[in-house]
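Response to reviewer comment R2.3. The reviewers asked that we include at least one raw input/output pair. We reproduce the pair for UDP-galactopyranose mutase here without editing.
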Amino acid sequence: MTDLLIVGSGLFGLTMAREAAEAGAKVTIIDRRDHLGGNAWSEPDPETGIEVHKYGAHLFHTSNERVWEYVNRFTSFTPYVHHVYTTVNGVVYPMPVNLGTINQFFQAAYSPDEARALIASQAADIDPTHVDDNFRTKGISLVGKPLFEAFFEGYTSKQWQTDPEELPASIVTRLPVRYTYDNRYFNDTYEGLPTDGYAAWLTRMSDHPNITVHLDTDFFDPESEFSKSRTVGNLPVVYTGPIDEYFDYREGDLGWRTIDLELEVKPTGDSQGCPVMNYGDRNVPYTRIHEFRHFHPERAETYPKDKTVIAREYSRFAKRGEEPYYPINAAADRKRLKTYHELAATEPNVLFGGRLGTYKYLDMHMAIASALSRFNNVVAPFLSGETKTM
Ligand code: FDA
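Raw output as returned:
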């Protein structure tokens, strides 16, 4: 007997499942993949044993106390602190842009105030009435022309396969420039990687007597016991797959970007000396290279000394059926999403959640926080009979 069906075993689905199970409900989770955990899943590379993040690098970080406390119930975290570097024109610079980057780039020894004045003068060309014209004008207004061209123009055009002048200013949420030598990538209070890996963490979340997991099970497979046609209307459903797919794309496809990861085992103990190297030049086809061994310096003794695993990352538009990673959120997408939301509101006791179900980019801590609050506000009152619909 199932009290709640959860479609998708990513961090949103797992958190929801765990909360419901602890509240006494019998929960069934289905996932169409052959493993649980969604995009945060990682597994050891078969040749080297090095933990590889299967769907792209996942770094855990949060300033949310409740989420930090919650995740620590299932895993401890290493003291890993994320740092990123960028290669531009044959030289390596620290990221995000900071005083070290600026002084190295201009071969100078500017103080914070001098660097601030320099960047302001290099942004002065942009007419204030045209700042919001496009990504380029907005970017230059924030970091000045030389830094924009070196660190953002090529990288962004590869990431979006679109010229920065054709991209909206709105995608520049923040191009941080730090006038200190701090090159910590994230600003959050808590940061780290699960000590014994993502697979162990995510599997522990599902390990509860009230939770049953069915892998290789697609909600849209009419033959499945847990198919949409057999469950919706009969059972409460938490759906974390793509919202447009749920409605058979009847209002059109929502736009997504995806990435291709090209894995390679290299015959060296260290290929690039850091976990992530961005490539700012347009003529380098990939956006960045991950070297997974550097995510776990504490495992240096157990990882091989003569082999390493790298992944070159290429970014492109996703076609239907490919892995949807980053919502594009163009005007046409927003219009379609509004209609899908209206349709979703009429589905009987189906809650749309997570990254794909809401068409929002969510970091892991945001997916967990969202599941915790939607469980408390929507699912728990429904399961306890306090509310009649969810
Ligand atoms: P998620 O996508 O993880 O899970 C959805 C699940 O639903 C999948 O397992 C899928 O198979 C399943 N599903 C879909 N349709 C189905 C159907 N019809 N039937 C059955 N199952 C179905 N975050 C962060 O904090 N730090 C980071 O460094 C990164 N890095 C990062 C890199 C890349 C490339 C991406 C794409 C994302 C990140 N993230 C991240 C974000 C992180 O991956 C995200 O927060 C979580 O995956 C969100 O969990 P969800 O449960 O919402 O979705």
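DSSP finds twelve helices and 16 strands in the chain. The first helix runs from residue 11 to 22. Further pairs are available on request from the corresponding author.
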